[in-house]
Design goal:
five-stranded mixed beta barrel, single chain, BirA Bifunctional Protein, domain 2, about 500 residues, elongated, eight-stranded mixed β-sheet, OB fold (Dihydrolipoamide Acetyltransferase, E2P)
Length: about 500
């Protein structure tokens, strides 16, 4: 919305600009010396139950600061409501309490949306509302733009995502979501620190992208005249650290994948990734169940969570199915057909899924699972035994080398975690890298590069280990009942608006 909008909008902006100019001319504009002494939530918690007589007998002096969200101007007395980081508190401004000049300045210059500080003593109104009776009121900053109309708030989704600051001002549930996100991340970190995992940071810019099948973003380092890639995953660097002796290591950080936008995907997203020496993928499944139960309880107060009407119980053992079993159980193919390449190709083509000639049996099975099965997995379910063909960094199963010792965790049709026993055979890994490079040369933008330095690291010896990545954004979606990933990202990627172009 530009300043040349409708007449009411243009008039409101003009009036606020005039008041801003008067405030500047009076001196003291943009003061930075007011210090709040309490936040509203703490005052409400400590004094909200006190009655009028008790407050009168035991005066409580304090100062608060925040944004003016309500304003009722009367003759010699007025009420405002300030909102700070803890909530809201009402303030009572009078000509006798502030003095005639200061009270008139309040009446003439203050608007809803302004930032203000109020100092005084607590009282109770006749209706029993805890209120700060002002002895000093200071305008700290003017809001030149009016806030959305209070009864309708900010409901336009596009505006909410583009102007998240306005969304946070107007929508208290949005603030709760992001406060919960912060607590969830803190809890994830604490879980691993308590178990003697070392938190590390690995590079965001890679000379060779690796660690996941994904198309990277490309950038360029001018001084070295070197193309670089924003990381798609930290995996290969974290495993280098395990080679170096860090037997329990984790990172919570951003990954970048050059993919489309959707309710489940943002090109920039947060992952928790960890590696644990002398463990296998089955240990990771047990640990993951323990982790998710703890985080759910600490975030919501219960191991049972409702996401978009689906009740989830993180306190019970998650179901475990092999990938082949899940395809058969969903009735997609019969047990005798699961290893029939022609039948798999035909089923994919029936569902209008593009099929490449060079795909092997494992890739065909994986594409069929992704197109017809994963979206049906509502209850927390570990899907195990992925084909080794689509698991280039995973250890092969000892009994059946066609599959890898790998799992993915699905909840409400979304992949939440991916883990596996690590491939620590340098010859096998080099061969798989070569196969990935062949796919890349054939036009697969998501196939991996050959990383010779990582092979060198493996040649020094990676201990038996297991590793896992957990999508933090998708986990937060589940625990906050948020239908879109944009609801849990403070600043999701958006197409440029006309205003910003």
């Amino acid at each position: 919305m530009s300043d040349e909008g409708s007449t009411p909008e243009r008039d409101a902006l003009k009036v606020r600009r005039q008041r801003h100019d008067q405030w500047r001319a009076a001196g003291g504009a943009f003061a930075n010396d007011f210090r709040p002494e309490a936040v509203s939530a703490a005052l409400q918690a400590e004094y909200g139950d006190w009655d009028k007589a008790r407050l009168d007998a035991n005066p409580v002096a304090t100062a608060v600061a925040g944004r003016v969200m309500l304003r009722r101007v009367m003759g010699k007395a007025s009420f405002i409501t300030l909102e700070d980081g803890g909530g809201r508190i009402q303030c009572y401004l009078t000509r006798d309490g502030l003095g005639a000049e200061a009270y008139q300045a309040f009446r003439d210059l203050w608007d809803i949306g302004d930032i203000a500080g109020v100092r005084g003593r607590l009282m109770k109104t006749n209706r029993g509302e805890l209120t700060l009776a002002a002895e000093e009121a200071m305008l700290l900053n003017k809001s030149l733009r009016p806030l959305p109309e209070k009864f309708h708030g900010l409901s336009d989704t596009e505006t909410r995502y583009r102007q998240r600051y306005l969304d946070l001002i107007m929508n208290e549930p949005v603030r709760r979501t992001f406060a919960m996100r912060s607590r969830i991340v803190q809890d994830l970190r604490a879980f691993f620190v308590e178990r003697d995992f070392l938190e590390v940071e690995t590079p965001m810019m890679h000379i060779i992208p690796g660690g996941a099948n994904a198309e990277p973003f490309v950038t360029h380092h001018n001084a070295l005249d070197l193309p670089l890639y924003l990381r798609v995953a930290p995996e290969l660097f974290l495993k280098r650290l395990t080679v170096g002796g860090f037997e329990r290591v984790f990172e919570i950080n951003r990954n970048f994948r050059n993919e489309g936008l959707s309710a489940r995907h943002n090109p920039e997203f947060t992952m928790l990734e960890f590696y644990w020496a002398y463990r296998d993928y089955r240990d990771l499944m047990e640990l993951t169940e323990e982790l998710l139960e703890r985080v759910a309880v600490n975030a919501t107060g219960s191991a049972e969570v409702v996401f978009q009407g689906q009740r989830l119980d993180f306190g019970k053992r998650f179901e475990r199915l092999t990938l082949a079993e899940s395809i058969v159980r969903q009735g997609v193919l019969g047990e005798a057909e699961i290893d029939d390449e022609d039948r798999l190709r035909g089923r994919l083509q029936e569902r209008n899924v593009p099929v490449e000639d060079h795909w092997g049996l494992g890739k065909l099975q994986m594409e069929l699972f992704e197109s017809e099965v994963e979206g049906q997995l509502a209850e927390p379910t570990f899907i195990t035994e992925h084909p080794a063909e689509v698991s280039p960094l995973s250890r092969r199963n000892d009994r059946n080398p066609f599959v890898a010792d790998r799992f993915e965790l699905f909840i409400c049709g979304r992949e939440i975690a991916n883990g596996f026993s690590e491939l620590n055979d340098p010859d096998d890994q080099a061969d798989r890298f070569r196969r990935q490079a062949e796919r890349k040369n054939a036009g697969d933008a998501e196939a991996m590069h050959f990383d010779a330095d990582y092979i060198t690291a493996l040649e020094y010896g990676l201990p038996p280990a297991a590793g896992e990545g957990i999508g933090v954004d998708r986990l937060v979606m589940l625990l906050t009942d948020s239908p879109s990933i944009r609801d849990v990202l403070l600043f999701p990627l958006m197409r440029p608006s006309e205003r910003s172009s």
